[in-house]
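Worked Example 4.2. Consider the chain below.
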Amino acid sequence: MEQVMVIHGNEACVRGAIAAGCRFFAGYPITPASEVAELMAEMLPKQGGIFMQMEDEIASVCSLIGAAWGGAKACTATSGPGFSLMQEGFGYAVATETPCVCINVQRGGPSTGQPTSSSQQDIYQAKYGSHGDYEVIAYAPASAQECFDLTVKAFNAAEKYRVPVFVMSDEVVGHTREKVRIPEKLELYERRKPSVPPGEYALFRGGPDGRLDGMPAFNQGYKLMVDGQLHDEWGTRAGPSVEESAKLVRRLCDKVLKHDGDLLDVESRYLDDAEVAVVSWGSAVRPAMQAVRQARVNGIKAGCLKLRIVWPFPDSVIYDLAGKVDRILVPEMNVGKIVREVERAAHGRADVMGLPKLGGALHTPAEILAAIEGR
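Applying the procedure from the previous section yields the following structure tokens:
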């Protein structure tokens, strides 16, 4: 039977993770994500899972990777400074194609920044935070319901594409308490064992679509060489080989980028006849939608495109949108980051304007409406 609960976004992430099969959590408490760890400590052992509070975020992400290779679906949660500390670990997870999930409840930065205030400043860090060339997947919930839904999606994507997946929440979304529907049954992507016996199995041999053939755990009879250095399909170090190194990096990128259509997750509102579009994500969605509705009342043909996935960026959707509207507005709680991606994807087909806001305060509908009206 479907459950209906009134919970905040952080709890919805916890319930989504457990429903998706998460049975290992390692983390270090940090505002405004601390409730995720607290609730995991309470709820995960009841499901036969393991909770570990680590000494810091570096230990947390390393434990996460180890648990995944031990056979568990695993996640962590953090904010700001902790997300920074985890970046080298995420790079290692990319290179070793380790499925894992990180819930980042964003706060204002840089440095210790604004521990109790909201921001959307980490969105580039999710994609570019570690060194080298690689691709990840990042979702952006705008409500407690989406915290649940997109956390489930994050686990499915992590298992399917064997990459770190980020749930880019923020303080407003994480602490907003509202109705959440938890379905009785969910579509889950379960971890598969390789289709070939140990003697024939190459740990990092990609198929035609770049994805790997199952994922064995340690102590299952497979020879596993899990090394962060660039390697061949058997896991043997291949850094000196230009051909093998280039082949691996290209596959790590393509296995995500070439499936951007499958990963696409956006919602359109009032865009059929829109002349002005607001592209929003995360906590900025609510004031954006209210502003669009008021603009319609005022006789302005406005619409909203909500991005539920940010990486890989939905280039084709933005390109098509830019060909239908005159202007695109992008409200963000940062100096203006996703607006650059919108400008790039629009290819000059529409005027693109950012609406940055700093200091930890959410946009008001009136501020966005003023921009829609050109004031």
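The chain has two domains: 3-182, 267-372. The longest helix spans residues 144-161. Compare this with Example 4.1 before moving on.
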